[in-house]
Amino acid sequence: MSLRTVSELLAAPTRWYDGLAQYQHQGLAHVLATVVAVNGSAPRALQAKMVVTQDDYCDTLGGGGLEHDVITTARQLLNDEIDITVPKISKRNKNANDDKDNIRESKPTKAVRRDAVYTKHYPLGAKLAQCCGGSVTVMFECFNVTPPMSILVFGAGNVAAALMTILAELPCQVDWVDSRPEMFERYLLDNSNLPNKSIQTEDLPQRLNAQPHLNQPKLYKLPAHIRSHIDDDPVDFIRPFIEPFSNQSAQRFILVMTHDHSLDFELVRAALDAGSDANSLATNPSNSSEVSLPYIGCIGSATKAERFKGRLLQRGYDKPIVDKLTMPIGLPVGGKEPMAVAVSITAQILQHYHQK
């Protein structure tokens, strides 16, 4: 059962600065398009802005053919689909000084770097089906084109709760799973304090509305990029998290830290199985150079780690795959307080993310 946060239930942003803040916080790939030059008549003034994502946009540069092309160009940049032709000057006669000997040729096209600023000039005439008569230049800035960290956390105990306070401030996507509803009660938001309940409850999943004891959906004080789930069978979350993104294993992290050691083991097994299947390792699991799994980490002592790895080997898992399990989880920074452990876990996954 998925729990909706306040931010998810509010209307989508309509102003560029709201969208920019939201997409930056979520780590979602987006383009900020800004009018940086205006000549003559134009639909928007200098410094007008809009934000474009793969499937949405907010604010406007004036609509019409101009805005349609801006949105198309922004999404081509996000998909790395724009090439440019770079002119060059060649000399047929190196000893001649006459300009007639200077031949302007073109280098092969090269892709626009998405981490650089890209500009495009728009005459507002027949080509865009606009009759303003002037022209504008639009600057495109890409953000978060590298997929953000995507983190699947099992368990809502003290360490996980401390971890969420850190992840709340990082550009990432988090799915947080536990079978115990009471573990999320600390995040409950009193609906009576909401100014407009109809906004908060629209478009809720039918499976929530179908449950009679949930006449008023529960809202949680969590950032939009942290999604909480209550489910009696958390193993079911693993394959959908891994399989569609096998080419992005460096950006995906599975953190196992439940209250039940036997459940921890089953989750670890399911993660190793799904990761191996997604990367076609089953046919040749002995070659460690081919092992490419998402980060799979499990909380516990060195003794627990030794037992888990021994049981995995006894069940037929190959050593290169078992060695991909990070256990105990976190960097050895010292301290056993929940926040100290959470800091060590965050440091480790950030280290893995930025080294890939």
Automatic annotation (TrEMBL):
Domain XdhC Rossmann intervals: 152-349
Domain XdhC- CoxI per the UniProt entry, residue ranges: 25-80
Top-level division of the source organism's lineage: Bacteria
Record InterPro entries: MoCofactor_Util/Proc, XdhC_CoxI, XdhC_Rossmann_dom
UniProt cross-references to Pfam families, sorted A to Z: XdhC_C, XdhC_CoxI
Name of this chain's protein: XdhC family protein
Lineage, top ranks: Bacteria, Pseudomonadati, Pseudomonadota, Gammaproteobacteria, Moraxellales
